[in-house]
Specification:
With about 290 residues, the protein is of the alpha/beta class. It is built from 11 helices and 5 strands, in the order ααααααααααββββαβ.
């Protein structure tokens, strides 16, 4: 029980940041050390996510330098993970459209630090331009919606790239170690879901319906096209996990959370997605017609 409590505190309280800072502080300048210690003393304040991005931007020069200490890189990883935790535990239903716009920009800024993605940089530049314009008119809303969809495409490409790098190695482990395939099938997808940039999908989920309504755009969005014939069922995808069907079935679902797999014989579905980045398995295994609001 003692060690279980330690795990909970480390995971949800950012305790690993304290350890990493102690190990790395000897290589940092005095002001940066003070700023980091101040952050840790106030880690539960509302301004912490923005401060995390600022300090990670300053820290980048240290871990990218030739001969950089591994401890500095581990500190940056700990800060990145805590940033994700801060965004995930935010009550997104209470955020206004402007709050969501600003938070998306902050997450993109954070992703650009170590994401190694020019795409994210282009998305951030366009997002900053959108944020600086007069907001919530029909024309602006269309532009903002296009920017949000551009971010979605970048997230998808980023996730696909990570999946393609990770999953083949998992398959080799399965063959070499004679592992049950069920432990490997979704391994790459879980790695994708574990990326800190994943939180962007949660924010876009809340923001896109607002943009569509302000722009006067229909709520339905075509994600992928496919022809299908089968029995139509109205049911949540999460409720039929692990099931198989003797005949083809078309599912009409209220939402796709992204943790679901597509059952055997299930054809392209009509759904209201809860994420634009999470449903890797769903988008890989079946076509889908979805709506955003």
């Amino acid at each position: 029980m003692k060690h279980y409590l330690w795990i909970l505190k480390t995971t949800h309280g950012g305790a690993d940041m304290d350890t990493c800072l102690e190990m790395a502080k000897g290589t940092l300048d005095g002001d940066l050390q003070w700023q980091l210690h101040d952050l840790l003393r106030n880690r539960n304040e509302w301004w912490v996510p923005g401060k995390l991005v600022e300090l990670r931007q300053r820290l980048e020069a240290y871990w990218r330098a030739e001969g950089a200490s591994r401890d500095v890189l581990l500190l940056d990883i700990a800060l990145d993970n805590y940033f994700r935790l801060c965004i995930e535990r935010t009550d997104k239903s209470s955020l206004s459209g402007d709050d969501l716009l600003d938070m998306v920009g902050m997450v993109l800024s954070n992703a650009c630090i170590a994401g190694e993605s020019q795409d994210f940089g282009q998305c951030l530049a366009y997002w900053d331009k959108i944020k600086g314009a007069e907001r919530w008119g029909p024309e602006w809303s269309l532009q903002a919606l296009a920017a949000a969809q551009r971010v979605q495409l970048s997230l998808g490409a980023f996730g696909d790239n990570i999946y393609s790098l990770v999953q083949p190695h998992a398959e080799r482990f399965k063959e070499a170690c004679k592992l049950d395939p069920k432990y490997i099938t979704n391994f790459g997808e879980e790695v994708v879901r574990g990326q800190p940039v994943f939180v962007l999908s949660l924010l876009l989920q809340r923001l896109e319906p607002m943009l569509r309504e302000a722009a006067g755009v229909a709520p339905w969005q075509i994600v992928s096209q496919a022809e299908a014939q089968g029995e139509v069922a109205v049911q949540e995808l999460a409720e039929i996990q692990g099931q198989s069907f003797d005949s083809a079935r078309v599912l009409v679902s209220n939402q796709i959370g992204g943790m679901e797999d597509i059952p055997v014989s299930l054809l392209p579905s009509a759904a209201r997605p809860s994420s634009h980045f999470v449903p890797v398995s769903a988008q890989d295994q079946s076509g889908a017609v979805t709506r955003a609001a």
